[in-house]
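Figure 3 (text version): structure tokens given as input.
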């Protein structure tokens, strides 16, 4: 016969961040997180592209769907291109990429679940690790 289980106590989940503190991260971890954040930040370029294409005066007089479909196609093509281009962009000019990342993070108040202060501390940690590596 099956016995009933006792209910679990109502203990809230810890609010600990799932990412390690920036101060304890090594250079590989910092670079990986910054590269991922830059990849997300570069996708934010697609929002103005979508808005421009939708808002352009169109010769087609019809429903909003007819105006939105080309914008969605442009966003999809842009997404596909940016997805393949963001790593080479980051590797060719990391300082410019991080400058763009800081700008988008400041404008948006953070990128996805990463706060602006964490983005700034990651950039500072990267600079600190690169300086200590150059001294060695």
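Below: residues designed for each position.
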């Amino acid at each position: 016969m099956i016995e009933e289980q006792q209910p679990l106590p109502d203990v809230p989940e810890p609010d600990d961040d799932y990412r390690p503190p920036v101060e304890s991260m090594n250079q590989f971890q910092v670079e990986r997180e910054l590269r991922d954040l830059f990849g997300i930040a570069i996708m934010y370029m697609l929002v103005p592209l979508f808005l421009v294409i939708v808002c352009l005066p169109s010769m087609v007089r019809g429903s909003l769907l007819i105006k939105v479909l080309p914008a969605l196609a442009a966003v999809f093509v842009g997404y596909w291109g940016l997805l393949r281009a963001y790593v080479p962009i980051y590797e060719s000019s990391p300082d410019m990429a991080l400058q763009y990342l800081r700008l988008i993070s400041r404008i948006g108040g953070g990128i996805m679940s990463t706060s602006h202060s964490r983005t700034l501390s990651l950039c500072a940690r990267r600079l600190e690790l690169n300086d200590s590596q150059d001294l060695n």
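Strands lie at 110-111, 114-115.
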